């Protein structure tokens, strides 16, 4: 490999590494969002239940 090829290969590896870390961060964030949504649904169900009790 020539110097230019080595340099472009290094850049390519750097890009792949950045992509991997970005994907990893997105996944972690997605899990956090899903957990948050579950909590929100739980509180909403609890709230609706209390509203129904109040109406009765």
Provide a descriptive summary of the structure in words.
The protein is rod-shaped. It has one domain. It has one helix at 3-55. Helix content is 95%, strand content 0%.
The figure for the number of domains is: 1
| DSSP strand tally | 0
Beta-strand fraction estimate: under 5%
Helix content: over 70%
Order of helices and strands: H
Shape: rod-shaped
Task: Give the termini separation.
Answer: 79 Å
The structural class is mainly alpha
Multimer state: single chain
Mean pLDDT: 90
User: How many separate helices?
Assistant: 1
Short overview:
The protein has 56 residues and is mostly helical. It has one helix spanning 3-55. The protein has one helix and no strands.
List the helices and strands and how they pair.
Elements: H1 3-55
Search tags:
1 helix, 56 residues, mainly alpha, rod-shaped
């Amino acid at each position: 490999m020539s110097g230019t090829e080595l340099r472009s290969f290094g850049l390519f590896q750097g890009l792949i590494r950045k992509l991997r870390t970005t994907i990893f961060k997105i996944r972690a964030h997605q899990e956090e969002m899903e957990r948050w949504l579950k909590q929100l649904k739980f509180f909403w169900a609890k709230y609706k239940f209390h509203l129904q009790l109040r109406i009765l």
